[in-house]
Write a structure and sequence with these properties.
alpha+beta, Endonuclease, Chain A, eight-stranded mixed sheet, globular, DUF7931
Length: 167
């Protein structure tokens, strides 16, 4: 049986660490000014390589509309591990915001996702497994992910432990 023809939305399954890293990079490169990331887990290799950080920096410095919002379940662990995304956040905190879910229902949500401002998304049902789906331009699937992100964002607290101390 042959694979279905590409409908132009770039929809595909993602399976494995290499495919996941390629999908993240493709979606970051496609973003113009805005990203939303829901990250129950932040492994050292997630959003931490040079290419991904360069794309995140490009988005964060893209102008007045730049807005990267990250829901991170365990910011203290990311700080303790010296994750490179945290260092970027500390340098560009005017356009990158990190919050932590505080409600139990939100903290028990183990799925991870990325949505960008061009209709792209990456969704992993279980953040601990590199398996999920992505699309480059599928607003019908992206919209509920963005809405869920926005709802959790409103109920979350600022990750103040990540703020750089200027002593």
């Amino acid at each position: 049986m042959s694979a279905p023809a590409d409908d132009g939305a770039g929809r595909r399954a993602v399976d494995g660490r290499e495919a996941l890293a390629a999908a993240r990079l493709q979606l970051l490169a496609a973003a113009c000014h805005r990203l939303a990331l829901h990250l129950p887990l932040l492994a050292r290799d997630d959003y931490g390589n040079d290419a991904e950080l360069a794309e995140l920096k490009r988005i964060a410095t893209s102008g007045r509309r730049a807005d990267i919002r990250i829901l991170l379940h365990d910011p203290a662990a990311a700080l303790r591990d010296g994750h490179r995304l945290i260092a970027l956040f500390q340098r560009l905190s005017s356009s990158i915001a990190i919050r932590t879910p505080v409600e139990d229902a939100d903290r028990q949500n183990t799925s991870a996702w990325l949505v960008n401002d061009t209709g792209g998304h990456l969704y992993l049902p279980d953040a601990s497994r590199p398996q999920g789906r992505m699309a480059l331009a599928d607003r019908a699937v992206q919209a509920p992910l963005q809405q869920q992100f926005d709802e959790i964002w409103e109920r979350s607290a600022r990750a103040s432990e990540l703020q750089a101390l200027d002593l």
